[in-house]
Design a protein that fits this description.
The protein is built from ten helices and eight strands. The protein has 254 residues and is α/β, with parallel strands linked by helices. It has a single domain, classed as 3-Layer(aba) Sandwich (Rossmann fold). Strands 1-2-4-3-5-6-7-8 form an eight-stranded mixed beta sheet, sandwiched between helices. The chain is globular and about 45 Å long.
Length: 254
């Protein structure tokens, strides 16, 4: 992977293919390898940028509190570095929250928005409290409890559960803590939907145990022109559980 220094961190990224610039943002608490199954299916059509969000994978982080907007700023700096003025921004789960923050901050740089197993709503007060409690537990005891709790929630596929477990175990505790707090403090993007004048693609599994598919259907209801793909039997990792269907959906940006 290549790296650059931006906003006080080291940001690692990979770049594959050629064509329309397409940024693929991974979810929590994983890294860019989440997209390994779809990249070969898309790199003939897209210039794919695969960052590790701050703290995850090969990227470093900071100890101070940061927001989804700060992570979006990292992405803007990366695109500046790569001399890419505009791109399609696709995010999985937490990556979707970053994509939404990027679209709010830099609307002129977005040629399309993709939400994969994500949502536009902010956390409820109870969910926010739970995230901060988990962050405190990680700071005190490490990541093992989170890994054990999340592994079966990603997917029912045993092989992909093993992938998720291995990926989570490689991440830094500081990344968990920072991301949990940033997710807990994120804003509701629902009011922003009406300002989206570019293509929107939504991909969601109907067996998602982390973010219910109703969240995807609500975005579709608010954006009738959005393209929604519901993947039967898929959980929270449709890009790995159904890579061909996920790639086919994302080809609508080409």
């Amino acid at each position: 992977m290549d790296t650059l220094e931006i906003n006080g961190i080291r940001l690692a990224y990979d770049r594959r293919g050629k064509g329309t610039p397409l940024v693929l943002l991974h979810g929590y608490p994983l890294d860019h390898h989440l997209w390994d199954g779809v990249v070969p299916l898309l790199q003939d059509q897209f210039d794919i940028i695969l960052p590790d969000l701050r703290g995850f994978g090969g990227s470093s982080t900071v100890d101070s509190f940061y927001t989804m907007e700060d992570i979006a700023s990292d992405l803007a700096g990366l695109l500046d570095f790569l001399d890419i003025p505009k791109a399609v921004i696709v995010g999985h789960s937490m990556g979707g929250y970053v994509a939404l923050a990027f679209a709010r901050l830099y609307p002129e740089r977005v040629t399309g928005l993709g939400l994969v197993s994500s949502q536009v709503l902010a956390d409820t007060p109870a969910k926010r409290e739970d995230r901060f409690k988990t962050a405190a537990e990680v700071a005190d005891k490490g990541i093992a409890t989170v890994v054990e709790a999340m592994t079966p929630k990603f997917t029912s596929d045993a092989h992909l559960q093993e992938f998720a477990r291995n990926s989570m175990e490689q991440q830094q505790p500081a990344a968990y803590i920072g991301a949990l707090k940033a997710m807990g403090e994120r804003v509701d993007s629902t009011p922003f939907l009406s300002r989206m004048d570019y293509p929107v693609v939504i991909v969601h599994g109907d067996a998602d145990n982390l973010i219910p598919i109703d969240r995807a259907r609500e975005v579709k209801a608010a954006l009738p022109n959005a393209y929604l793909v519901e993947i039967s039997g898929a959980g929270h990792m449709p890009m790995m559980e159904a890579p061909e269907k996920t790639a086919e959906a994302l080809r609508h940006f080409g």
